[in-house]
Write a structure and sequence with these properties.
- There is one protein chain.
- This protein is mainly β.
- It has one domain.
- Helix content is 0%, strand content 41%.
- The strands form 2 sheets. A 4-stranded antiparallel beta sheet has the order 2-1-6-7, with no helix packed on it. Strands 3-4-5 form a 3-stranded antiparallel beta sheet, with no helix packed on it.
- Strand 1 and strand 2 form a beta hairpin.
- The termini are far apart.
Length: 90
């Protein structure tokens, strides 16, 4: 049975390559942040967008422009991960 997802994550890389994923949960982290539940993990040196795929697998992006769209297709957040000084929300 297919799971209905509330969001779509779209990434556009600097070379123009584009990918889409369905998700229900999206989080953004600044470089150096490590969630409390991730003891022993080395902090990322880049800003990151983390999301959960319909099968429960966690995925992350640290490059490209990431758009988060709601079920209606409206962009609700944008992250620029290729900035020299890390990503930033629009």
């Amino acid at each position: 049975m297919e799971k209905n997802c509330n969001f779509t994550v779209k990434v556009v890389h600097m070379d123009g390559a584009t990918r889409l994923w369905a998700t229900d949960q999206v989080s953004a982290y600044r470089a150096g942040y490590v969630p409390e539940s991730s003891a022993g993990i080395v902090p990322s040196t880049r800003d990151m967008v983390v999301f959960t795929l319909p099968d429960g697998t966690e995925a992350s992006l640290d490059r490209g422009t990431v758009y988060v769209m709601n079920a209606s297709g409206k962009t609700v957040d944008t992250f620029y991960l290729d900035n020299v000084y890390g990503g930033s929300a629009a």
